[in-house]
Amino acid sequence: MNEKNTYYITTPIYYPSDKLHIGHSYTTVACDALARFKRMQGKKVMFLTGTDEHGQKIQDKAAAAGVTPKQYVDNIVEGAGGVKDLWKLMNISYDRFIRTTDDYHIASCQKIFQKLYDQGDIYKSVYKGHYCKPCESFWTDSQLKDGKCPDCGGDVYEAEEEAYFFKTGKYADRLLKYYEDHPAFIQPETRKNEMIAFINQGLQDTCVSRTSVSWGIPVPFDPGHTMYVWVDALSNYISALGYGNDQYNDYDAFWPADLHMVGKEILRFHTILWPAMLMALDLPLPERVFGHGWLLLDGGKMSKSKGNVVDPAVLCERYSVDAIRYFLLREIPFGNDGVFSNEALIARINSDLANDLGNLLSRTVAMAEKYFGGTLPAERAAGEFDDDLVKTVSEMPAKVAACMDDLLIPQALQEVFKAIQRANKYIDETAPWALAKDEANRDRLAMVLYNLCEALRFATVLLAPFLPDTADKMAGQLGLSEADRAWSDLRFGGKADYTVHKGDALFPRIDAAKELAELAAAHEAQVKAAQEKAAAAEKAAAPAPAAAENIEHQPEVSFDDFCKVELRVAQVLTCETLPESKKLLKMTLFDGERERTILSGIAKWYKPEDLIGRKVGIVANLAPRPMMKGKYVSEGMVMAADMPDGGASVVFFPDDVLPGSAIH
């Protein structure tokens, strides 16, 4: 691991094609908790997040909105309720926010692309294959799953265009050796096995430019090409530190990164393409790349188009920011897929936050005020149950730190709440209300409440990275100074005196039945709105029906005149070509009453065997017409439509329609 007293942690840079949802918040809150924890331990932290703002999807979205791509992403990122507002709301303590449209990042990317090209790691060729627009990924036939994108399951389309390629395959052996020598590089372990299998099936070179997408960073030596997403996006981790630009000067201090946190769907790019690029640039690789699972809703991955997304801003307003942070960090098994449900959210709030934590604080402070006027006396007497509580609380910091080092975030919170639950049990064991009835127990009562305050002080310190607002409220009620909250001197008994101040409940209990009914109704309305929006968009995007060119109109006829035309179904009995004509077919048809002869100019498109036995539409009351200088008489007309190529398409009827049936 990095021996310097620094810690560099990154989220993926998010794609701002629309507002972010709770799944994006999950990743960012996890990184924020880790960054805050490392700062608390005394590390100099660089916490980077940002947005990946180029590509075809944003180009299309901007065009549909009638704005430029830059205007579109500016609104999503910087506008009211946008990405930056969301992170401010959720108390995300990032140190740097990068946008791939930033000038310094563009300069870095162009220098990187040029260097890789100059040394032969990038070359020009032609891409042929399949492309998924939502994932911005190219796929071969063998990589598709049932003809769909293997990542998102969406449709792909055929793509063929001139492109530049990075020689990813050149680094296959070096990557496998690196994985072997650095077993902690890819986490969790199951993801590493997936990456090894992907390389072993044959590592293809990577398309790194497009000619069909104008919204991107121009290739410096070939401006007809723009950089394809991954060279642009992945380079943010070093451009944000000043690599290849003069904006920042932190590269030497923070690189290599201690942790890239990404969703499992983009782990392949971060553990194969990105390391290969760094090898080509002769730069160190990050210490760890962690691929977390998806946050699922309604049995599947969240999708804006399906309406099954959860707006974190709405939840934060309804339940508090820290309640949502806690649920995301405690409920979801880190590294695996997790399920978001309103039932689980409310259960966590009521059980862990309101009952366990909230009640412990409110009971302790209330008893200290009731029995001692808020200030605990210095005279205290130890007794039964003290040692077990002190042991549990004292062991908590080391256990939490070990969990955080191993990225076991839910388990870290579990350790904190074990101590909180032990403190609640301690109240039941020592029964302070009973001790208060006898003045002789005053010193013992003081010790019990002091031990509870110390347990809460430890909880305040250790919850601060996860629930920063709540920790501040707890510190206020417990009368803690900044020194009292220092990680470096966290020992039981470290604060000699307590003067507490009663405050509002940390997390009021929620009426679960009422709340769930309201949330279910809101979710149903959201899904319905998304379905209506998708249907409207599909209708708007549908191409206008193709129409015949040069339509010639006949004079208008009255309804009575039209009713004089008799259209009926007839069955073709015989059909033959005529030696006198290459255009005409001679047919004998049964019209339900009699046989009749009709000559039709469709010989160029139909053979006699195509028509014999078929049922066709005819104009039955057309006056007989001599043809071929009177040699033949045609007793009607077969109905057919003009085709775009100048041909004709006969109107056929199914077998169960009887000859003689009227056509209306």
TrEMBL record:
Q: What is its EC number?
A: 6.1.1.10
Q: At which positions is motif 'HIGH' region?
A: 14-24
State the compartments where it is located: Cytoplasm
Q: Which Pfam family, an example, fits this chain?
A: tRNA-synt_1g
Q: What is this protein called?
A: Methionine--tRNA ligase
Q: Which residues form the TRNA-binding domain?
A: 561-664
The UniProt record lists the keyword Lyase: no
* Family under the similarity heading: Belongs to the class-I aminoacyl-tRNA synthetase family. MetG type 2A subfamily.
User: What's the chief localization of this chain?
Assistant: cytoplasm
Cofactor(s) required, per the database record: Zn(2+)
What is the protein's species of origin?
Candidatus Allofournierella merdipullorum
Q: Which Gene3D superfamilies match?
A: 2.170.220.10, HUPs, Isoleucyl-tRNA Synthetase, Domain 1, Nucleic acid-binding proteins
